[in-house]
Structures are given as structure tokens and as C-alpha cells.
Design a protein that fits this description.
The structure is a homodimer.
Chain A lengths: L1 E6 L13 E6 L2 E5 L5 H7 L7 E5 L11 H10 L6 E6 L2 H12 L7 E6 L6 E4 L3 E7 L7 E7 L5 E2 L1 H6 L7 H5 L4 E2 L5 E2 L1 H4 E2 L6 E5 L9 H4 L4 E5 L9 H5 L4 H11 L3 E5 L9 H8 L5 E3 L5 E3 L2
Parallel strand pairs in A: 3-4, 4-5, 5-6, 14-15, 15-16, 16-17
Antiparallel strand pairs in A: 1-2, 1-18, 2-3, 7-8, 8-9, 9-14, 10-13, 11-12
Helix pairs in contact in A: 9-10
């Protein structure tokens, strides 16, 4: 599981700071999460292959989280993409995009699907044999979801010397990986646990931005490996958090602690702060380890 | 009259090339012409004060000419702009912008006016005591206008030693500047031409992008000081120009020659070309002088 931060600052794009966008690589999927203005250029800068992105998740319809989407969709068209693209987003975004296509008389030459969200409950919005994606209902000024990405339990690993020693035909290897006992060439039933080791623990990532402090998300994100939680403010500006429906670094850390996550990543910093280390120090009074998102930063969780 | 090129490449924004946007400073006005994705960052990079932009002119509704507008409008709001903003654009853009404001529940705190265009004739769309702006109907795949910016005739310049020698009261100086003969302190009628010199010749700038070769624009842009004309292609790809409704460098030069402009600036290059000097060389076989637009380039025509 790998995470590339394309942008992690709040509000407006500037010369050296980008609005929210990140790419999660999990079990060979490449998921784009949020898409602020300039995201397509940051994708190029980080050498991420456009064609590998098949699903885009948009948290909410504030501009710093989606103004780059229409341009990305349009660029995919100009690059003669053929792969289908799925947008998971709050209700209303399809109308915005389609209206602009209509005015430009430019329709995609690849299949484009919108999956619009309006539930206030956590729901499963994507699933295949390897990965699940769930919404995390957040508390912001407009309808907002975070997203929980979970690997499914993988297959058991064959212990090859033991498998050979047990005289098992290759035709049964997949059964063993799936956790079944099998007959060997001599007709003896072999306990799969004796010739395989347990699957690697499935990884999980929770993206929570933008949101006020919201304790009710804790059960949804319980025990995740990595939590990205917004920290627009430091505690010295805590009075601004409730009315703008954002969080402080300390609040993000409280959520991380209650949810028993393994790693907390902070981001969505207000551009009023010069020293981002203050976010880390503040959060570390509650929870460790804390990592700081930075534009262009790459995290490898394998 | 000064021109700053924020972006001059066609199609998609990339690491080192920006889509169309430019700022024209003329008679103390700062006009933004087109607004591709990333324009707000380029405005910051070129240290252009946001508050000085009161009029934005959008040529057409292809993304590389307006996808940066919604973000710019939104950033103005976040910066608590109070100055009014006027958008001159093809019909339909207001709906796109307003829909996004509605979804974000974020309305501007400054007065925002849309002046939507749908005429196929050249029309006067802005005028004050110093400047006029006219549309230049172009020939592209969607409804498109270029824009002609013209200084009005200025005031005559006082020849101060002559004025003093003629014994004229200061109360009459403005009348002289406006070209009236006045009485001096001795009651003698003074010919204004004897104590003033003619006004500086008014400057003019024509922006023509995107368009196929269209000779009927020649009378509209006749004798302008500076013509920016798109040249998406070189002649070696001339076969692509009619179907995409773009021009070659040679065609841009033909328009410049027929219109008897003083300077031609080329831009809106296809990103297939590595050496932009080929555009200049090709155009110079027809017309001189030719300048090449480049992102971040500043032209001073005073």
C-alpha cells in the first residue's frame, strides 16, 4: 500500500502549495482521492500513469477538492483514453461536468460513470475480489464523505519445502492457498495449516477530510493501518474550528487514539502557518506516530 | 500598453506549459483575457494584483480557455474581495459558475456580473472614457470571440512655455487639452494648436484565439498596433487546421499582413512542437515583425 500526496493545503492553490489530491495504490488499484485545481499537472509531476486511474473519489463539493476534475476528464479525452472511469462523488457533480461538456460540445470517447452519493450512513461503494471502499460520513459545511479503503483477506502462503515433502500434486496448490485440506498423491489428507502460513494481514487506509471533530467515525475507522485526518488549525486557533467545521491537530490525534490506528497523517493545513512541525508536535502530545503530509511526498506502507 | 502572457499553449496544462490566459494593461485598466486551469497561480507568479482585475474576457467555452475561472472567482471570495468583477463570455458560462457556487453553498461577497455574448457580429461590449472593447467574431468549433481593445483618443499635451508666454489662465488648461481655442488674460483668442501638441496616438490590441483562418476579421482589426493570433500548427500540419478550426503560423501572418498591423504575436501552439522558433520563421516569410508568446513573457508597447 502506497500513498502519494499531490496536494495537502486548504483553500486556494498557490505557487508552492496545492489543494487536496492524493493517489492511493492498494492491491494494484490506483485510486485518486479528491482533485483540486492543478491535480493533472501534479499527476504528471509525480509520473503517475493516467490510464491506471479508474476510480476517483470526491469527498465534497468545495472547490479545493474538485475544481481540477473537469480538466482531468477533458485531458483524458484529449489523450484518447479508452479505459472506463468511475467518479464516486456527492450528488450534483455529474450535472456540473456534463453541462461543461455540452457547452464545449466535447464528449468523452471513453466510458464515464458517475456514482453519486447522498447517504448519511457509511456504505460500501466499491468492491472487487481484492479491495473494498466504504464511505465515512463526515461533519462539514456541505455534504461530505471520507473514504475507507480495505484490502480483503489474501490467500495463505505455500511453504514450498513442506508442500513437496507432503507429496501434494500441483493441482491442489490453489485449494491449499484458500485454506482447504487436500489429499496427497498417496491418498493421505493433509492439514493445510501444516504446509501453508497465514496470509499477510490486509492493509487499510482511511481518508478523512474535511471535517469537524466527529467521534462517531471512530467505529468505522477502528484499527486502520493509516488514518489521514485533516488538521486545518492548531489549538491556538481552536475557536475557528467549530464554525468552519474543520479540526485541529489535537482533535485529529484524539480520533487516531480512540480509533487505535497505527499511523496518523495530518494535512489540509491552513496556509496561515509557516512551520508545519507545530502540527506534528501538537498531535504527538496525544498520539504517536504522526506523519506530516507534504505536496509530492510518497508514503510506502509495505 | 503592456501584455503579460500567463499561458499560451493549446489543449492541456502540463508541468512547463500553461493553457491560454493573458493580462493586458491598457490605460490603467488590467484586463484578464481567457482563464485556463492554473491561471490564478500564474497571476501570483507574475505578481499581478488580483484586485486590479475588474474585467475578464472569455473567448470560448473549451476548457483550456476557462477551466481556471471558477477557481479564480472562488479565490477572490476567500481573499474577501470587495471590488466588483465583470465576466464577458459566451452564453452558458454563468450557469456553470452559479451551479458550482450553489453546490458549495459559497456565494461571492463582492458584486459579480456576467455579460453573456451570443452575437455573430462585432459589438462594443465595454466602454469608458479611456478605452473601448469590441468582439471579433471568430471561426472555431464552438461559438468564439476574439477581443479588440482600443484606447480612445487622449488629450492634447500642453506646451508649457508657450502657454505661459500666451498669458493663459490655468482655468483654461483643460479646455486647451480638449482642443478648444481660449481667451487669454488680455482677452485675445489663442489658437489651441499654437500652445499644445497632438495627443499620443491611441494604442490598440487584438486577441484572436481560437480560430480557423478567417479573412472577414481583417476590417475589424485593421491597423491595430498589436495582433495576437493563434497558430496552433505549422504548415507541415496544415491539413489538421480546417477540421480542428485552428490556424497555421503562415495563416496568422497572412491575416496580420492584410490587416496592416504593426506587430504580430503568435501563440496557442500545439504541444507537438519542440522548437517554437519554427513558428516565427514560417510567419516571417509573409510578415514582419513577428514575436513569439511564451508563458511568463512580458511585452511593453509604450
Amino acid at each position: 500500500m502506497k500513498l502519494t500526496i499531490l496536494g495537502c493545503f486548504s483553500a486556494t492553490p498557490r505557487k508552492d502549495t496545492n489543494p487536496t489530491a492524493q493517489v492511493l495504490e492498494i492491491n494494484n488499484h490506483l485510486f485518486l482521492i479528491d482533485c483540486g485545481e492543478g491535480t493533472q499537472v501534479e499527476l504528471r509531476r509525480n509520473k503517475i500513469k493516467f490510464a491506471r486511474i479508474k476510480h476517483i473519489f470526491i469527498s465534497h463539493l468545495h472547490g479545493d477538492h474538485f475544481f481540477g476534475l473537469v480538466g482531468l476528464i477533458s485531458t483524458f479525452r484529449l489523450l484518447t483514453r479508452e479505459t472506463e472511469l468511475h467518479i464516486h462523488c456527492p450528488q450534483g457533480l455529474k450535472e456540473v461536468i456534463v453541462l461543461q461538456m455540452k457547452l464545449a460540445d466535447s464528449w468523452t470517447n471513453y466510458p464515464l460513470f458517475f456514482h453519486e452519493l447522498n447517504s448519511d450512513d457509511s456504505e460500501l461503494i466499491f468492491e472487487d475480489d481484492k479491495v473494498e471502499v466504504w464511505t465515512i460520513p463526515l461533519d462539514h459545511r456541505v455534504y461530505t464523505n471520507g473514504f475507507l479503503f480495505k484490502e480483503k483477506e489474501g490467500e495463505r502462503h505455500l511453504n514450498m519445502p513442506a508442500v513437496i515433502e507432503a507429496n501434494i500434486d500441483i493441482a491442489y496448490y490453489n485449494k491449499l492457498k484458500q485454506g482447504h485440506d487436500v489429499l496427497n498423491r498417496d491418498g493421505v489428507l493433509i492439514d493445510h495449516q501444516k504446509v501453508t502460513s497465514p496470509p499477510s494481514p490486509p492493509k487499510s487506509y482511511a481518508f478523512c477530510s474535511d471535517t469537524a471533530y466527529k467521534e462517531s467515525i471512530v467505529p468505522i475507522i477502528k484499527d486502520v493501518d493509516v488514518l489521514y485526518h485533516e488538521s486545518t488549525f492548531l489549538e491556538k486557533h481552536a475557536h475557528l474550528a467549530p464554525k468552519t467545521k474543520h479540526s485541529t491537530a489535537k482533535e485529529a490525534a484524539l480520533i487516531a487514539k480512540k480509533a487505535n490506528v497505527k499511523i496518523l497523517i495530518l494535512g489540509h493545513y491552513s496556509t496561515r502557518y509557516d512551520d508545519l512541525n507545530e502540527f506534528k508536535h501538537e498531535a504527538e502530545t496525544i498520539f504517536k506516530p504522526v506523519k506530516l503530509a507534504r505536496d509530492g511526498k510518497h508514503f510506502d506502507f509495505d
